[in-house]
């Protein structure tokens, strides 16, 4: 239809409407199928909205949302770094976005090749011999790794005796819960004054009942475990396996690998260390990597290369089976692959170096104003304590709320549990020095407010859409009714 035809069409009132059929659904006599008293007398009042109304509704919601594209998001342990938009361009290519997992292999060779190449890259980055991209999150990667550990001990006839997983008290919270869900007993290993695993305590707990050790490194204090080689020796000598929680590989990638540290199993969080948008339960990817002797246990199907062709292989009798539908969260894997390829080995190492530099810069600027449980170099994140402010009647939660007034997302609070009134700050490498300084200035100002005008902090936030709410009631008495405006 050309322009003149269109003008003609819309200048004829009723023409378009009258050419539409009344309804293309045959009417049904409902009283013939249902008891009369259950049939509506009048049609249901269904919400009808126009396209602009719908658009405004979702745009308004998105404006209320806060993301890395809006501002600084120092949520410790979550690595809310900027997601380069080239990742999105690549993930939206029709050849990736519009394919179906049941398509014949020969029609999706590019997708298989991408997954194969991503596995190859992750092998190098983690120092492992084989990778599965199936797990959809870090926690699922942990569970997958532990189930493989269990299968390995069972194969060796040790399944009944090796029932314990040793987990330091500085581990991420998912570690003990994954071990528990995988059917193990969890033994907590305390940290020493430096915030690293106490080797003497570890030696006391290691024995013939040890299935393995799960180590978060850097630990949740942001500290690199300095005795890592001694730990791996102690656990291996006792016949246990070593699991590395590599969710925060962004602190060490390109510098050192879990493989070189003696670990047998690792998971990575592609949705943290390798950018890709996440949060609010959004899609993740938690690949697991293993040393060669555990490869037969990896989830199936595995992606295989035969000459120039890629396909799926199921014939691994020792495999723990499938842990996720299809091949993991493919879209996240495409983004992570794009990220790795655009950064290159040198770029990935610079990520780790800058992430660590930024965290230490911010730590040094803030240390005089807060209590610090472990005063030493950190990796990608660090933990402050609001104990000094608590003595003045203001708690970490209040300071976190006050930060919202200045357009920041709050740090992780009250975690790790081993630090009182904890504030866990992870700046990431994608922020500028100006942003880090502005954030430090703000937090220092809040510390001064605590001393001079505590009510301003106690009643915060003042500038947000929603004033302070009762979070316990919000969770326990969730109100989901629709309010007509
Ligand atoms: C985020 C994180 C996890 C859990 O990852 P999810 O993808 O949220 O399940 C595990 N360990 C560490 C150290 C983490 O930072």
From TrEMBL:
Domain Glycine cleavage system P-protein N-terminal, first and last residues per copy: 31-292
UniProt enzyme class: oxidoreductase
EC number: 1.4.4.2
Key words of the record: Oxidoreductase, Pyridoxal phosphate
Single GO MF annotation: glycine dehydrogenase (decarboxylating) activity
Gene3D superfamilies: 6.20.440.10, Aspartate Aminotransferase, domain 1, Type I PLP-dependent aspartate aminotransferase-like (Major domain)
Assembly behavior: The glycine cleavage system is composed of four proteins: P, T, L and H. In this organism, the P 'protein' is a heterodimer of two subunits.
Name of the protein: Probable glycine dehydrogenase (decarboxylating) subunit 2
The gene coding this protein: gcvPB
């Amino acid at each position: 239809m050309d322009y003149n035809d269109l003008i003609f069409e819309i200048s004829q009132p009723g023409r378009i409407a009258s050419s539409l059929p009344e309804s293309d659904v045959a009417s049904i006599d409902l009283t013939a199928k249902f008891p009369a008293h259950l049939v509506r007398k009048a049609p249901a009042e269904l919400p009808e909205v126009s396209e602009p109304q719908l658009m405004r509704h979702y745009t308004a919601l998105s404006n209320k949302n806060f993301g890395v594209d809006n501002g600084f998001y120092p949520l410790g342990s979550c690595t809310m770094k900027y997601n380069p938009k080239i990742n999105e361009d690549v993930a939206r290519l029709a050849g990736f976005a519009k394919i179906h997992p049941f398509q014949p292999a020969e029609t999706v060779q590019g997708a298989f090749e991408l997954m194969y190449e991503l596995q190859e890259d992750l092998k190098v980055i983690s120092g492992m011999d084989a990778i599965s991209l199936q797990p959809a999150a870090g926690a699922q990667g942990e569970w997958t790794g532990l189930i493989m550990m269990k299968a390995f001990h069972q194969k060796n006839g040790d399944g009944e005796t090796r029932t314990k997983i040793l987990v330091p008290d500085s581990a991420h919270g998912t570690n003990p819960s994954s071990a528990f869900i995988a059917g193990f007993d969890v033994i907590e290993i305390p940290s020493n004054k430096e915030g690293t695993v106490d080797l003497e305590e570890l030696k006391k707990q290691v024995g013939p009942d040890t299935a393995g050790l799960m180590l978060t490194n850097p630990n949740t204090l942001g500290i690199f475990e300095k005795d890592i080689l001694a730990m791996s020796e102690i656990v291996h000598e006792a016949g246990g396996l070593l699991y590395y929680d590599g969710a925060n590989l962004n602190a060490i990638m390109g510098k050192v690998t879990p493989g070189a540290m003696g670990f047998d199993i690792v998971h990575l969080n592609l949705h943290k260390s390798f950018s890709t948008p996440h949060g609010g339960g959004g899609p993740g990817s938690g690949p697991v990597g293993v040393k060669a002797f555990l490869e037969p246990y990896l989830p199936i199907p595995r992606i295989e290369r035969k000459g120039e062709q890629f396909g799926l292989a199921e014939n691994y009798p020792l495999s723990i089976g499938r842990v996720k539908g299809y091949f993991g969260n493919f879209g996240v894997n495409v983004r992570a692959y794009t990220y790795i390829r655009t950064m290159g080995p040198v770029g990935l190492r610079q990520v780790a170096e800058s992430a660590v530099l930024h965290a230490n810069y911010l730590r040094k600027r803030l240390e005089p104003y807060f209590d610090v449980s472990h005063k030493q170099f950190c990796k990608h994140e660090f933990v402050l304590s609001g104990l000094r402010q608590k003595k003045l009647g203001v708690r970490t939660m209040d300071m976190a709320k006050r930060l919202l007034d200045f357009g920041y997302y709050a740090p992780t609070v009250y975690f790790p549990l081993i630090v009182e009134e904890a504030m866990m700050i992870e700046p990431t490498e994608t922020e500028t020095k100006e942003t880090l300084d502005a954030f430090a200035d703000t937090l220092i100002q809040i510390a001064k407010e605590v001393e001079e005008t505590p009510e301003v902090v106690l009643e915060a936030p003042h500038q947000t859409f929603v004033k302070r709410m009762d979070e316990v009631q919000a969770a326990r008495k969730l109100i989901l009714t629709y309010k007509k405006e």
